[in-house]
Amino acid sequence: MKTKAIIMDESAMNRATTRIAHEILENNKGTEDLVLVGIKTRGIPFAERLAKKINMIERKEVPVLTLDITLYRDDLSEINDRPIVDKKGFNYDVTNKIIVLVDDVLYTGRTARAALDAIMDAGRPKKIQFAVLIDRGHRELPIRPDFIGKNVPTSKSEIVSVKFDNIDDANKVIINEI
After folding, report:
1. Tell me: the pLDDT tens digits for 139-151?
2. Which of 93, 77, 143, 149 is CA-nearest to residue 115?
3. CA–CA separation, 120 and 17 (whole Å)
4. Which domains are delineated in the chain?
5. Cβ(157)–Cβ(173) under 8 Å?
6. Structure pTM?
7. Which ranges of the chain have pLDDT less than 70?
8. Alpha carbons 103 and 80: distance in angstroms, whole number
9. What b/e string do you get for 26-42 counting C-beta neighbours within 10 Å, with b at 16 or more?
């Protein structure tokens, strides 16, 4: 793969994270009943960064849960008629909570749909919202994020890669050509 462009550097990622944290707080009138759920893999460090920003703004800790939806995907039904979500790190009662699903990139919407299924199996939240760092389009399902760091129109032959320093030793978002 060849790098086509760096679309966000560390400063741009930080600004987008700060803005989304403010939007989440404004939309929910604070942190009461607020829970961030990072979708594995890079939704987790993004959720942790949002929680840190929210804490800096409000001086309140917001729970951050991790959700692995790998076996919840509808496109893995060949493995099992009813795939089970890996609930390690997700032993939290979401009933009457405001859940903000957090992921790095929104593409077809299938990951978000699987995460919604997993959340609903864990309880009945008051509200579910969706935050993404990058919305690249090409939806196959009627999924729309509530909070977006950046809209990036892409072609299907491009791959958007979000890099976080605790996983990738860098903080940036790049577009690669296949």
Report:
1. 999 999 999 999 9
2. 143
3. 26
4. 2-177 (3.40.50.2020)
5. no
6. 0.90
7. 71-90
8. 25
9. eebeebeebbbbbbbeb
